[in-house]
Amino acid sequence: MAIQVRRIYDPPAASDGYRVLVDRLWPRGLLKERAAIDEWLREVSPSTALRHWFEHDPAKWDEFKRRYAEELAAPAAVEAIARLRELDAGGTVTLLYSATERAMNNAVALAEYLAGQGEPG
After folding, report:
1. pLDDT tens across the length of the chain (121 residues)
2. Strand partners for 4
3. Residue 37 DSSP code
4. Which long-range contacts (CB under 8 A, 24 or more apart) does 77-81 make?
5. What is the DSSP secondary structure assignment for residue 38, as one 8-state letter?
6. What single string gives the DSSP state of each residue in 77-112?
């Protein structure tokens, strides 16, 4: 699996492959031309309620990943997950996020989920 995670405000790299924004909201202050994204999959972003509950609190990280994995079982998310797996089969996919927290964010949780480490159960 060739999934990597990068902050969307960082300059694109040649090694990024297919760049997918996985946030629900467009990143503040970023022009679409500068974003250098190939696709925007809002369907795999956590719900607004979950984002507000989490607030990047390290004490809530494990529970956030559990709840997020449950949300990824929704029909629209399942289709988007299938799309990500299809893209991954074709080469490197970079999941892009806008949060300032680099270690605990939805893109990191999603990458773990795709790798089979974040699925419920």
Report:
1. 589 999 999 999 999 999 999 999 999 999 988 899 999 999 999 999 999 999 999 999 999 999 999 999 999 899 999 999 999 888 999 999 999 999 999 999 999 999 985 444 3
2. 94
3. -
4. 77/43, 77/44, 79/43, 80/41, 80/43, 80/44, 81/44, 81/113, 81/114
5. S
6. HHHHHHHHHHHHHTS-EEEEE--S-SSSSHHHHHHH
Residue with tokens 């607030």: 55
The rounded distance, in Å, linking the Cα atoms of 1 and 115 is 7
Contact 84, 78 (CB under 8 A): no
What are the structure tokens assigned to 93, written together?
């996919």
